[in-house]
Predict the structure of 5-methylcytosine-specific restriction enzyme B.
Amino acid sequence: MDNDIAASRRQLDMNIAHQAGELISHMLGDKLSVIDPTVEIWTAAGAEDLRSRVQTDPSPGSDLSQWNKLGVQLGGASRAVVLLAAELVFLREHPLNGIRPSTRREHVEDLLALLDPPADIPGQMSEWLARPSETGGFEPNTYYLSAISDHLSWVADFIIHWSKLSEDDQAAARSDPWQLQQVMLDSGDNRTDIRNTFQYLAHPEVFEPIPSANQKKQIRDAFADRVNGASGDTPAHIDRDLLAIRTSLAKEIDGEFDFWSDGVKEKWKPAPNVAASGQSADELTEPRPRRYWLYAPGRQASKWNEFHSTKIMAIGWDDLGNLSAYSNREEIRHALDADSTGGSLKNSVLALWQFQNEIEIGDVVYVKSGRREVLGRGQVTSEARYDHDRSEYRHVRSVDWTHKGQWALTRDAPLKTLTDITSQHDLIEQLEALIVGEDEPEAREQPKDIRAYTRDDFLRDVFLPEERYLRLRSLLIRKKNVILAGPPGVGKTYAAKRLAYSVIGEQDRSRVQIVQFHQSYSYEDFLMGYRPRESGGFTLTEGPFYRFCEDARADDPTRPYFFIIDEINRGNISKIFGELLMLIESDKRGTELRLLYKDESFSVPPNVHIIGMMNTADRSLAVLDYALRRRFGFFEMAPGFRTEGFASRQKALASRSFDRLVERVIELNAEIAADPALGHGFAIGHSYLSIPSGVESDEDELAGWLQSVVEDELVPLLDEYWFDEPAKAEQWAVALRASIG
């Protein structure tokens, strides 16, 4: 291997492969187990038995985890087969970056416990399993983590194929990485992720530690100009190109690197293009307002003095390793519940997720002790990090602690380690008054760096023709109150926010608020009413619409504000709006009426606009209040499968399965529209097929997503629509499944 290439590879990745290489050498050589060297495990007979077992579901329809299911599948298996499964599980998980050592060890030990007599993990392998998280290897996607049966099946196929080769062919493959790759490909390429993993473990000097074939191609394509263009798109071509690309980069980069290193990753993995993905741009493009957090620095604030002096906030659960390795809350829950107790661990999971992913620089943190005492206030100044140098509380953020003292609360604070209190305006105002001496928190300030949002942005994001957008915009400005009506999945909420921004001219979240009506929602919830106090008695509390109107009134009257009401026809309109039914009329803006609960006159400012959303397919809803119909303009929203925006994203995806599914859904909508019991208001909207970020570049993820859309969303919806015509529902379910098959 070229010295530059050898020096460029991360030593941690090489160590992992060299450790696993001992098992690989037995697999390709003498067939002996590393755990029990007296037993041959890498045999065709053992592989066939293992494959048969893992391809048989022992409990169809049950909620057994894949690990519990594997234990059942291996029940009664020979010693050789159980050892084979245990060593394959080791090989599959050893290169994973974010898995805790205890979890890796547990998965192997659980299988060895099936043996009689049981086998212990040998000392050297035990040392390998003790490797800490975040020390080399790769980050698996959720598809990899959930595919234990598919992975074991593929390796079994490879072992069977390998056993059929001549000794000369085996010897050639053992000595030549590219011949070994070809043997793996010849054995079946239905699971590229585990093949790529085994390639790397067998020859880390040649193959990158990247399981995803699509990711490999994405990297190769981004750097293809360094090697005079792509040599081809077969796995061998792509891996040879990646080796050549590394050779080129190694001449410019000093020391170790991988394709996720700073300065390298940015060239092949740019920031997600939200518009192209079809994903909601809410969290990615809108300026996020400051959020407020209540935080306990250790039990009974035992770490407060240390954290204050070192200007940090930190939380425990150190065994989880770097929290950036977890892509969702469920992965954190599984890591916390290593013993599979089934407990929800809800508060712990939420605290860990929010600490890592939801707190942002500029957020305000209040420090609490117990339920009635506040000790400090500060402002977050850094992203989350995992500090290996700390002996405990390694999940850390830097904080500028602006206040320290002791203040008594008049209400009980939550007992949780971390609580988002942004929506608890009364509590924030009390804390600010106690600590800072002001009852108006900084959250009310104008957001900074607000991005412009124009008509063109709306037309790019929302599947609505320009002439219909202009009509909708005109209706909203003229009536001041509009209801977007349509079937599920046409993007009513998505469009409502962007409609507001397009009129405002920028994505100013401080001038847009959303609430949702329901059958129990009342005037007291919406405008104003009495609420019980913890200390006894009642206090008059302002509702969201009252606060919103007061904020709009205090602003320049030429700056429009938008109050969005989801599921507006779920509420009792007369009960919720009360005297507001008159005040919201466009020609009654500014007219004052005395409020029911407060001795003051109130009016709805002229710069307040109301956008409601109504689901036309909800059979549980009554006819909309006619008094409300007169005060609102109604705009019908339909599926946008034939719009230019959807068509362009469909073309960019270039998936035949997706194209077929779109056509079936369009045909299905025609059938629904023609059904006298349903009609256009029950059509299936385009949001069901809005492509999530990351799916478009990974065939496996795309296939899994399409299957989930059909099985978990569309088929149940059809069962509900045609509950009295099950044959028709089944006919269309079969058609939808066939379109992606």
Observations:
- The radius of gyration is 30 Å.
- Residues 699-721 form the longest helix (23 residues).
